[in-house]
Amino acid sequence: MKYIIALFMFFVWLPFQVFASETAGSAETKFVDVGGVKLAYREIGSGDPIIMFTRLRGTIDTWDPAFVDALADGYRVIMVDYPGVGYSEGQLAPDMVVVADTMAKFAEAVGVRKFNLVSWSWGGALGQTFLVKHPEMVNRAVLMGTNPAGEVEHAMRDDWFKLAVKPVNDLKDEETLFFEPAYAESLAAAKASHDRIYARPGVTERIPSTMDEFNPYFAAAQKFHEDKQGIREALTKSNVPMLIICGDNDPGTPADNWFPLVRKIPRAQLLVMPRTGHGPHHQFPQLSADYIHAFLKAEL
């Protein structure tokens, strides 16, 4: 009888053990129908939902697993590929508002009515658009390595943009794209992050790599900075709490661009992380997750 009980307990325990051990590196790719298009996503953890909007050319593969795993401590973290990107079907719309509407439908399709938004770079521009157009769906918003809507005073560096649109980026490119190559600790963090991301096979094959694939991103970004939708002004009236995380030497989206605006946003906080560039959460995955957790849990 004791052997039967032990066997029963093993099979009861096993699913929970498998669930508990799932990480960003091992999470399965799932699909959900959104307006007749299959969108790919992965999720880990449990608790209040976090949905992540990624960068130009980013996919569900290219988030640093260390950051995602740390972020999922106490939260249900959901990563999604935009239409026509990564594992998703369809085509990326050349308009942030259209993509934001699609992401709202995606959230509903995976059973999420309200969530915490964590967004990066191009995804941070999308995040600003989303929280203005769908404020009822956003609990709190984190904007990382991104520019505010409208005109910005400090442009991206030309050499940085040339690297950003190379068909394939190697570790050397990533040191400049996402880190701060002037510092040895940042270079070490770049290699560690790169190794974690590319531990999953087939990552490069899913990253957009042609100008035809880049153009919808560029067109959407241009409209975002022309700002005929009034996103910048709407941010100054938004009641959504925002945490803006920047690297102190970001060659793509300089932190300085937020200084004229952040004091005008009623519930915004600006955090500048040292000796890093466009990907502070890849250089400091645990620390960035800790800051985000503190922000999400804080009495504001």
Rough outline = globular
CATH topology: Rossmann fold
Radius of gyration: 19 Å
**What oligomeric state do these chains adopt?**
single chain
> Quick one: CATH class?
Alpha Beta
Domains (count) = 1
Overall residue-averaged pLDDT value: 94
Across the major sheet, the strand order is 1-2-4-3-5-6-7-8
Percentage of residues in strands: 15-25%
Low-confidence stretches: 2-20
Q: Could you estimate the helical fraction of the residues in percent?
A: 40-55%
Label the CATH architecture: 3-Layer(aba) Sandwich
- Number of beta-strand segments: 8
Order of helices and strands: HEEEHEHEHEHHHHHHEHEHH
Number of helices: 13
Largest sheet: 8 strands, mixed
